[in-house]
Amino acid sequence: MDADVVVVGAGAAGVAAAIHLAQAGREVLVLEAADHAGGRAHTRTIDGFLLDEGFHTFNPVYPENAMMLDIPALDLHPLAPGLAVKDQPEAPLALFAKPGFNPLVTASTLVTAARQGMFSLDTARGALRWMLPAINTRSAYPFPGDEPDMPLSESLDRAGFPESSKQLLIMFFAGVLGEDKGESSATYAKCMLKAFTAGQPSLPVRGIGMIAEQLVHRAQQLGVRFCFSTAVAGVDESRADRPVVAVVDGDSITANHVVIATDAVTAADTFGSTAPAMRGLSTWWYAADEPPEGKHLTMDPHARGPLVNTVVMSNTNPNLAPVGKHLVQASAIIKNHRALTDREALDHMSFIWGMDPGHFELIVRDDIVRALPTQLPGREPRAPQTLRNVVFAGDWCHSATLNGALVSGRLAAGAVLRANNRSTMDATTPPKKS
Ligand SMILES: Cc1cc2nc3c(=O)[nH]c(=O)nc-3n(C[C@H](O)[C@H](O)[C@H](O)COP(=O)(O)OP(=O)(O)OC[C@H]3O[C@@H](n4cnc5c(N)ncnc54)[C@H](O)[C@@H]3O)c2cc1C
């Protein structure tokens, strides 16, 4: 069989690459191992609940998200701005404001921070100095004028954060970095903070799977063909000028170009790229008749259990639960491949919400060992890796978010088009939505 461009993987990166290539007039065939698109950003229906595979939020502030998706059609339900934290066991949750959002909540944040010994003039100065390069610029990543990249933990120490607020920030970032040692890139963490303060993490009305639905629909309108349940075993570049894609069932497809848009570990193990390692996350999904109160991302900064955050999803987006039921998620990082017990998660979650564990009934747990590519210091976004006529895409090529995956798809498409000497797009300039 013959094809112009084969894309391996129908996650956000692969479908974005397919859209850009099709917009430039190329014929694109997408081969996807699973029976659906979306990769890690997938939603299932279980017992009437709409459950993402692992807790996801969508932040419309990221430029590529806004450019590639019909944001109004996602009918986003924003989480409450800021964070809720469990301080003393008997005390109610304390709110940490999103800067500048609400003067009353900001005042209560300062009081809470002062009570916890997190706030002094020196701390405030250090924190501001630390955040300003990220918040005070229009550019994305890396930020001009910022300190050289280093591990987050070291960067917070240098800025003079006391142990309590350093711990709070590291626990907050653990949910988006997949680690709680502060070994990830401080620059990347600031980038996350910038997105969190400038935009509002939100829940699409029917779950994160809506992103892939929209992308696939757009790709199909442009003539992109999809083959699901079609795993690729490898790509052979040695036999001719044109790479040969070997499908697991024995078929092979000769193509002009191949875009490999799998997760980082598959890209390295099966397709020979130099991709980073990946970190794991677990999410427990619970049904409740009586929900805890609150619409914030909620966490225990003192790490008195394994969870990095918990959210009452249906308080923000009631469509995720059947009528009369409520949906709560609780997430933890997977450390050293040790799966936590359901009991450990339930006890910690009940403690955070101040409710009896009997209120919560486990629907399903997701253990995603390959959740997020590592974002170590100095690993900045870069040009797509290319092996002759094969180009790599995926969040690991740019940044560990849906936005990063979409950017990587665009950059990979640009590399294919340039390689073919038929470039109709500048890979650094986002094309207009069709
Ligand atoms: C639990 C969790 C929470 C997250 N939270 C957020 C969040 O809140 N906000 C955010 O922006 N991002 C979040 N992310 C990250 C986001 O989901 C990813 O960055 C993004 O989905 C990656 O897209 P991708 O296309 O690069 O890779 P993937 O989604 O992994 O897509 C790769 C595709 O390749 C397919 N594939 C693999 N091997 C083969 C093969 N041999 N042949 C054919 N097909 C193959 C896979 O089946 C998959 O469909 C989260 C991720 C996880 C796991």
Automatic annotation (TrEMBL):
Q: Which stretches make up the Amine oxidase domain?
A: 13-270, 379-417
GO molecular function terms here? oxidoreductase activity
Q: Which domain of life is it from?
A: Bacteria
Leader sequence range is none
What the entry lists under PANTHER family is as follows:
AMINE OXIDASE
Identification of the protein by name: FAD-dependent oxidoreductase
Please name the taxonomic classification of the source.
Bacteria, Bacillati, Actinomycetota, Actinomycetes, Mycobacteriales
